[in-house]
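ok trying again, last paste got cut off:
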Amino acid sequence: EVQLVESGGGLVQPGGSLRLSCAASGFAFNTYWMSWVRQAPGKGPEWVSNINLSGGATNYADSVNGRFTISRDNAKNTLYLQMLSLSPEDTAMYYCAISDYGPNFWGQGTQVTVSS
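nice, full thing came through this time. structure:
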């Protein structure tokens, strides 16, 4: 059974930083592109970033480019998202996802709230 368990969310002030983690199990983690997706209250899902099998190629949404960094540790079956210079517009539930496999292959999410 595929399991994706996110952690690391919380309440942070504008300008602050957070590092999200996603522990993966139940599938061959190192053979899949992985993504982060977020969903703000009252809005649809927004793709944030993805990373290739080795971690050598990454892509970012324009809204986070230059502030967020995706990475992975295949030895630990873990995906990360380092978030810097957070703004209230980054407030959302953040989901770890197996790229291109749809919401059935997302984790349960971790809430990020940026507020003073």
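cool. The chain is about 0% helix and 50% strand. Residues 32 and 39 are 22 Å apart (CA to CA).
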